[in-house]
């Protein structure tokens, strides 16, 4: 017997709340460890996670509103959340680009990137599970908004892979540029996330193909 729509919406709501809570924890851990070990890619990954919290709150609000009233067009709260998210991602892009440039110029090397490997592996595992769960619920409810949220989690998985590659690359080679390159790639994804968030705030259709931690 297939689950009722009400049960599916409860599941979607719990998944949204879990995503918000996880991003907060991931952000705190990543920023703290990134600052302690002078790992720019991990620090940027953590800031990206904090920005994703704002986006996640918008998704949570959207799910509750759809469940209560139906209709997937965004209200002012969601559009405002998207505008804040987009602006924050643009600021993160500039910050990471400048910091990575200085890191390369000064030949900076992190103390260690082991924690970047650990954080990325945990994130990859959890994002994979979230993608499967969100996709199942989105298909069952025939909800483009929930499927788009699953696509954002898929993009977060890609970001985690970037962090893993940068962190493992440094540990294997000792080349500080690996960390800076990882930060630049995270900044690029943040730019795309910011652009898509602002497009969605304007009511334009776009696929969420690049998301943070």
From TrEMBL:
Subcellular location field: Cytoplasmic vesicle, Secretory vesicle, Synaptic vesicle membrane; Early endosome membrane
Keyword NADP: no
Pfam families: Cation_efflux
Membrane topology: Multi-pass membrane protein
Keywords of this entry: Cytoplasmic vesicle, Endosome, Membrane, Synapse, Transmembrane, Transmembrane helix, Zinc
InterPro entries: Cation_efflux_TM, Cation_efflux_TMD_sf, Tmem163
Family matches, as SUPFAM superfamilies: Cation efflux protein transmembrane domain-like
Transmembrane segments: 12-34, 40-63, 84-106, 112-131
Protein name: Membrane protein
Protein's organism: Geotalea uraniireducens
